[in-house]
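Reviewer comment 2.1 asked that we show a complete input and output for one of the modelled complexes. We chose the magnesium ion case, as it is the one discussed in the main text.
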Amino acid sequence: MAKFSDIKGFVFDLDGVITDTSIFHSQAWHQVADKVGSPWSKKLEDGLKGISRMDSLEMILQAGNVQNKYTDEQKVQLATEKNDNYLKLVNKMTPANILPGIKDFLDSLKANGYLISLASASKNAPTVLSKLQLTDYFPKVVDPASLKKGKPDPEIYTKGAEMLNLDPSQCIGVEDAAAGIQAINGAGETSVGIGDKNILKEADVLFANTSEMTLDNIKKQMK
Ligand code: BG6
Ligand code: MG
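Response of the prediction step:
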């Protein structure tokens, strides 16, 4: 693990870290699972976190062993329906959907001169940031459409550091998903996990929830 004093930038996941949209993604995917007859489980729900839209659909179809029942066109249709339902939920969002402590944490990063970028797999990230009125905190956003591979591949976190002109070793990545922690670690950044330690086993630094994430608390766990 890097030393805290080496850290110059933070690369953030969005869904489940900045805001509670991971619940909305789950709700919308659950509807798709019901429609195609795939069993919905906590394990599937957790495994979908951080995973791109089409890869998520593939995982849901595989859970019901119905991946060969749909043409590519029908798969795109299912993913579009999911996104339309997801956007209905997103459209009701306000800054009240920012997770506890996140605004203060972002302010403390700015006040202390840390650089900030966003490494979300979501093509809806700019819309969500705008609903939360957080767009100005994230001048650098990795475009998930530009990626060769999604999380758990490190590419998105490598790009998040590059956008800040920092070496990965100078960056902390923040994630709520196992696939995301794997991506951060693979990119050579220090990983901060938010959530269940049984799921985020590989995180360098772990907090049960966002309100515990402060610069001081990160420093304590990094030594
Ligand atoms: C990730 C979410 O941030 O974005 C996943 O954790 C989601 O649940 C992925 O599937 C892609 O999002 P979108 O908005 O492009 O469908
Ligand atoms: Mg997430």
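The longest helix spans residues 72-90. We note this here for comparison with the apo prediction described in Section 3.2.
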